[in-house]
Backbone:
């Protein structure tokens, strides 16, 4: 029974008070910060499940009693929410696909093909990422209005066809640069044309980068507010981001419980996608933000 | 062939960026309400804007205070968080996700959430303060507190900057710290002599991005205060929006857009010029 004692005891780090305290301090700060960050979400969730009479009380009840689940169906039917969801999905899915196609083509050209003026235009492209929207806003609005595009989805979905968000060109180009050029040469010897190289070699090898770009653009477009605000006027045409505001009314007062329920529904896809795609987010930011 | 693949962007650049930019310059010298014919007015818009429009200066003041306070705080807080989250600790990815969450939600959703949280009577913040026996201010209704509110809100969403710092921290070669350990350097000298200098390019990047974003703030003031009370949260882009899409003064609004653009350029240029004094680039590893 005593045989184990002949073995040396497993190595243990000596207890050091300083290190222990500094670790405790780190955890303390991080946990306190996390509570501060999460509390507004908890408050929103709590409000979304309250009866209207329970909202305006002190002390506040964090856990609603009773829990009013019916706020959710009520919020989703008080306005044409289903319609807004359809509109949003159409705009977001169409423009995400459009962005991926147009930006990957352009990125291919900037990363793999050689043509006069390429490097200068790439600098131009990079500088458009810094350009404030507002200096192009008004003439663009006027032209779309002349074309009769106000109150249609066209102003939201046509620009993505033309790689309007240069950031995604940049992201994909950075990724394409890491794929060995030999592959292109080998394919060319086998008789593949430029389009075949782009669609059969580059795109299949770039699935992670396309996923990053697609997810980031999807999230961006889902939240987009300014363009819908100036282009979509009938409430039938709203996207959800724009429609959320309808719950705050000057005359009737705001139905906070319904507004928060709608807000939770709106942010749910963002959170779910983020949860499943965390590592893509982090990769994407590391890839473009710092390595540039 | 290169042109064919680049064509979407080249066409898009001409149609949606270069063309509108030129048109916007031209428009800023006209008076046009979209209904009556356009009139050429020369420098009238700029004259009125710069010498006879107190609201422009109010909005410049509001936007500048917001940018000058919130950007440095975000830069500092983001760095602190990133350093804490770069330690070997438990539940690391949980903490990272939590801190990044506000940036994931972003924009309109956060604005609506905070409008409710900052409510004077039954908002979350004032309810918590009341537990402590403090009667909280009317955050969004008091000109003295409204910018404080927006700044606090921006700090809550500092996770985006944090994530960029984390990428930078992971790029610092560990040999540097090992060498410092050999020399017997403690944690504070290591932080000041290695971490901070190595992070200056990322701090620089976050500052530029932060300034550009802060000067274009729109959604939060639009949704939460509409610029009030008494124009105390009249951000520059909100003022532009009012002129263009409420008053339909397209020429005047274009002039505001160019004032904004020039202001952004000046601030960015100042940061870039100052960078040679404080940004450290490691020998030859710049770019790739």
Residues:
């Amino acid at each position: 029974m005593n045989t184990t004692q002949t073995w040396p005891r497993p190595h243990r780090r000596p207890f050091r008070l300083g290190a222990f305290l500094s670790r405790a301090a780190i955890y303390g700060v991080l946990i306190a910060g996390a509570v501060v960050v999460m509390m507004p979400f908890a408050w929103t969730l709590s409000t979304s499940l309250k009866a209207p009479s329970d909202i305006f009380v002190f002390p506040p009840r964090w856990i609603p009693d009773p829990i009013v689940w019916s706020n959710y169906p009520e919020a989703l039917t008080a306005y044409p929410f289903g319609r807004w969801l359809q509109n949003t999905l159409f705009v977001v899915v169409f423009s995400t696909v459009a962005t991926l196609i147009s930006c990957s083509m352009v990125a291919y050209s900037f990363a793999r093909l050689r043509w006069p003026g390429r490097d200068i235009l790439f600098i131009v492209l990079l500088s458009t990422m810094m350009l404030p929207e507002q200096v192009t806003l008004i003439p663009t609005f006027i032209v779309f209005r002349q074309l009769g595009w106000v109150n249609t989805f066209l102003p939201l979905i046509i620009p993505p066809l033309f790689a309007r968000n240069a950031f995604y060109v940049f992201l994909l180009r950075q990724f394409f640069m890491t794929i060995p050029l030999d592959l292109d040469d080998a394919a060319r010897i086998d008789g593949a044309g430029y389009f075949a190289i782009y669609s059969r070699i580059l795109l299949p090898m770039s699935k992670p980068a396309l996923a990053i770009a697609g997810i980031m653009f999807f999230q961006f477009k889902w939240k987009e507010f300014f363009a819908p605000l100036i282009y979509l006027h009938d409430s039938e045409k709203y996207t959800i981001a724009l429609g959320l505001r309808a719950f705050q009314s000057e005359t009737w007062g705001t139905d906070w419980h319904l507004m928060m329920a709608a807000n939770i529904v709106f942010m749910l896809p963002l959170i779910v996608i983020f949860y499943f795609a965390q590592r893509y987010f982090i990769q994407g930011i590391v890839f473009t933000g710092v390595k540039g | 062939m290169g042109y064919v693949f680049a064509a979407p962007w080249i066409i898009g650049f001409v149609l949606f960026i270069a063309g509108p930019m030129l048109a916007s310059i031209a428009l800023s010298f006209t008076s046009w309400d979209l209904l009556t014919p356009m009139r050429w007015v020369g420098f009238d818009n700029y004259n009125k804007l710069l010498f006879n429009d107190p609201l422009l200066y109010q909005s410049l003041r509001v936007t500048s205070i917001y940018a000058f306070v919130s950007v440095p705080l975000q830069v500092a807080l983001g760095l602190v968080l990133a350093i804490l989250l770069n330690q070997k600790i438990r539940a690391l990815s949980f903490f990272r996700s939590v801190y990044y969450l506000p940036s994931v939600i972003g924009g309109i959703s956060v604005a609506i959430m905070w409008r409710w949280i900052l409510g004077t009577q039954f908002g979350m913040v004032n309810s918590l303060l009341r537990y402590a026996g403090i009667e909280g201010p009317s955050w969004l209704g008091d000109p003295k507190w409204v910018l404080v509110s927006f700044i606090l809100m921006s700090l809550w969403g500092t996770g985006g900057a944090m994530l960029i710092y984390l990428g930078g921290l992971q790029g610092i070669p560990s040999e540097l710290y090992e060498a410092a350990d050999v020399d017997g350097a403690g944690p504070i000298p290591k932080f000041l002599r290695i971490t901070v200098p190595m992070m200056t390019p990322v701090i620089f990047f976050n500052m530029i991005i932060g300034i550009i974003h802060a000067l274009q703030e729109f959604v939060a003031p639009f949704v939460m205060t509409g610029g009030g009370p008494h124009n105390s949260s009249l951000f520059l882009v909100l003022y532009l929006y009012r002129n263009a899409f409420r008053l339909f003064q397209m020429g005047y609004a274009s002039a505001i857009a160019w004032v904004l653009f020039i202001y952004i350029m000046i601030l960015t240029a100042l940061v870039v010029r100052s960078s040679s004094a404080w940004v450290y680039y490691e020998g030859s590893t710049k770019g790739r």
